């Protein structure tokens, strides 16, 4: 059933919880009913005996929630992650215990690192034997303990009567403060137990009160700043309008690298790329960091006492992790920035437009990228020329991906999905499938290296089975090219574990029934993308044969320009490459 025809459950921001009168149902039915009540209209899942009652409940609710089954649990979890990143709303996946959970663990780790609201429903062995090491099917020692290391909020559902409330609490945890994944386990014999269940309505989210003194202190610092800068991470995703307004008021360049990209439209001259922000860093006097860990600036670029750092973060522990900031603002970015915008005019200096200066600086960097990363830039230009403004680009840990973080223009938030600090190879294709499934209204393009694509290429079967019209590009250099180049340059060409035996990707995709073609030039890629974006019921795979590409790392691992040189043990002065 098309998404638009599904009844939409409301997700009020703050409303006193209200429950329906109790009716007989199983734990599984209560859980599914509760998911639906929280607006979950799809679940990404792979079945197995411990969860049979859950899948039966999903069958009975199939007019309200679609079950999208994948070919490996990592596919299910990455799809839920992609759906969450593309929509900004909670999403769910379900897996069997033990190997099912562990197969999904890299995606769950990534969801945690990306603060993505993903709910894992995980099966369990019979309740009375949990923790006894008896050797039940899929038994995993201290499964709850392992889950608790992967997510901040987890629980085991003990009875049908408590299931709905536990779902509501997990949903609240995923959506309040620093967002993130949650997990609920349920034992094989508990899913089927029946009871009188009152479904719990969504719980109100509690927002911390805005600290008015901190707002005034931040407004004062920013208003007096000669060279302010705004740095955005994923925590600013829902505050693009406010970031744009504040940037204009302050004439402050805005950096979004990876997850902050697109918050300020790349066509705005004040929207700066990573190397340009680095170029401006030494003279920056006040930085407003919104929803970002600011790790690169602390560990690579340097911070000293002449730089006033203002941190805005949903997590009260975050601002002080590395160095106490001048001002800490705790809470949701949108409301806090709106207060800041209201308070700023009282202190704000009269400012000249910096647009022409920034345009000129951008032009210089664009030329440097074109010269130093010519092949990557040509492919990226072809993608940008065809991908509509609201189309979604899903990044990977590959040559085109690294360059895109620097040189791919992004126009809107949530249209550039990049894996954040995990930078885990192989996340992209299945994540993009989830994004395309949750956003059937826009084209989604997944870029991959030949190495990364093969991590989840089996999920082409899922795309066919569920008619997901994702467009996938595989840049094939026959190698773990990034590793290969490092071995060539830094290890005297002692090449090991980096050359790959690949399938013929066109024939491979064709064998699934997907549309498949090969594009040998940027112009051919454009034509192939045009054809792909018109297909709305089957996936497309475009193989692009490429050779070795120039290194992007000198643009990313920029040196320290302020403060004392302090090397992080084990990382070297430049920091790590993925
Ligand atoms: C989960 C994980 N395993 C290993 C790596 C290390 N790694 C980074 S890039 C890379 C090679 C990527 O190869 P490919 O996808 O073909 O892209 P290319 O560099 O050839 O463009 C590897 C193995 C990683 N980042 N993540
Ligand atoms: Mg490769």
**Helix proportion:** 25-40%
| Secondary structure category | alpha/beta
Strand content: 15-25%
| Bulk shape | globular
Attached small molecules: thiamine diphosphate, magnesium ion
Report how far apart the termini are: 40 Å
Unreliable residue runs = 1-12, 569-574
Strand order of the largest sheet: 3-2-4-5-7-6
Major β-sheet annotation: 6 strands, parallel
Total beta-strand segments: 20
Radius of gyration: 24 Å
SS field, number of helical segments: 23
What do the pLDDT scores average to?
94
Task: Give a written overview of the molecule.
- The protein starts with 22 loop residues before the first strand and ends in a 22-residue tail after the last helix.
- The chain has a six-stranded parallel sheet, sandwiched between helices. It has a six-stranded parallel sheet with strand order 11-10-9-12-13-14.
- α1 (27-37) crosses α2 (52-60), α10 (240-250) runs parallel beside α13 and α15 (374-386) runs parallel beside α22.
- It is of the alpha/beta class.
- It is globular and about 70 Å long.
């Amino acid at each position: 059933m098309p998404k638009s025809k599904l009844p939409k459950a409301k997700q009020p921001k703050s409303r006193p919880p209200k429950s329906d009168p109790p009716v007989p149902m199983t734990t599984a039915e209560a859980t599914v009913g509760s998911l639906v009540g929280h607006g979950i209209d799809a679940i990404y899942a792979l079945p197995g005996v411990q969860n049979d009652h859950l899948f039966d409940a999903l069958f009975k609710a199939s007019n309200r929630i679609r079950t999208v089954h994948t070919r490996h649990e990592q596919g299910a979890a990455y799809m839920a992650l992609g759906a969450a990143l593309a929509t900004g709303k909670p999403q769910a996946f379900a897996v069997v215990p033990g190997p099912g959970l562990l197969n999904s663990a890299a995606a769950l780790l990534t969801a945690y690192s990306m603060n993505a609201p993903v709910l894992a429903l995980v099966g369990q062995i019979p309740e009375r034997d949990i923790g006894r090491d008896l050797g039940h099917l899929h038994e995993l020692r201290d499964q709850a303990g392992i889950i608790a290391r992967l997510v901040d909020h987890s629980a085991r559902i003990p009875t049908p009567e408590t299931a709905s409330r536990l779902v509501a609490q997990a949903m609240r945890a995923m959506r309040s403060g620093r967002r993130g994944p949650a997990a609920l386990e349920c034992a094989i014999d508990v899913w089927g137990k029946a009871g009188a269940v009152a479904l719990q309505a969504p719980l109100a989210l509690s927002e911390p009160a805005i600290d008015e003194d901190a707002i005034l202190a931040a407004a004062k610092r920013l208003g007096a700043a000669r060279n302010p800068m705004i740095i955005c991470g994923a925590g600013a995703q829902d505050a693009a309008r406010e970031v744009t307004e504040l940037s204009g008021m302050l004439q402050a360049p805005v950096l979004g690298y990876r997850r902050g990209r697109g918050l300020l439209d790349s066509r705005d001259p004040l929207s700066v790329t990573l190397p340009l922000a680095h170029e401006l860093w030494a003279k920056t006097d006040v930085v407003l960091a919104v929803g970002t860990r600011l790790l690169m600036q602390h560990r690579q670029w340097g911070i000293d006492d002449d730089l006033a750092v203002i941190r805005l973060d949903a997590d009260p522990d975050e601002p002080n992790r590395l160095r106490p900031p001048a001002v800490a603002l705790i809470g949701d970015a949108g409301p806090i920035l709106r207060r800041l915008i209201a308070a700023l005019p009282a202190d704000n200096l009269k400012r000249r437009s910096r647009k022409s200066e920034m345009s000129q600086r951008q032009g210089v960097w664009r030329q440097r990228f074109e010269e130093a990363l010519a092949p990557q830039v040509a492919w990226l230009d072809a993608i940008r020329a065809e991908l509509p403004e609201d189309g979604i680009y899903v990044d990977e840990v590959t040559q085109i991906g690294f360059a895109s973080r620097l040189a791919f223009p992004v126009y809107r938030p949530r249209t550039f999905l990049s894996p954040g600090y995990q930078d885990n190879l192989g996340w992209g294709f299945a994540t993009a499938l989830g994004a395309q499934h949750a956003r059937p209204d826009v084209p989604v393009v997944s870029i991959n290296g030949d190495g990364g694509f093969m991590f989840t290429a089996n999920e082409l079967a899922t795309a066919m089975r569920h008619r997901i019209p994702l467009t996938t590009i595989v840049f094939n250099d026959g190698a773990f090219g990034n590793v290969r180049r490092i071995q060539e340059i830094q290890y005297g060409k002692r090449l090991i574990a980096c050359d790959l035996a690949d399938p013929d990707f066109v024939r491979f995709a064709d064998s699934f029934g997907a549309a498949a073609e090969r594009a040998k030039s940027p112009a051919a890629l454009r034509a192939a993308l045009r054809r792909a974006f018109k297909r709305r019921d089957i996936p497309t795979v475009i193989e692009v044969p490429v050779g070795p590409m120039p290194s992007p790392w000198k643009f990313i691992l920029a040196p320290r320009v302020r403060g004392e040189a302090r090397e992080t043990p084990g990382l070297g002065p430049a920091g790590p490459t993925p």
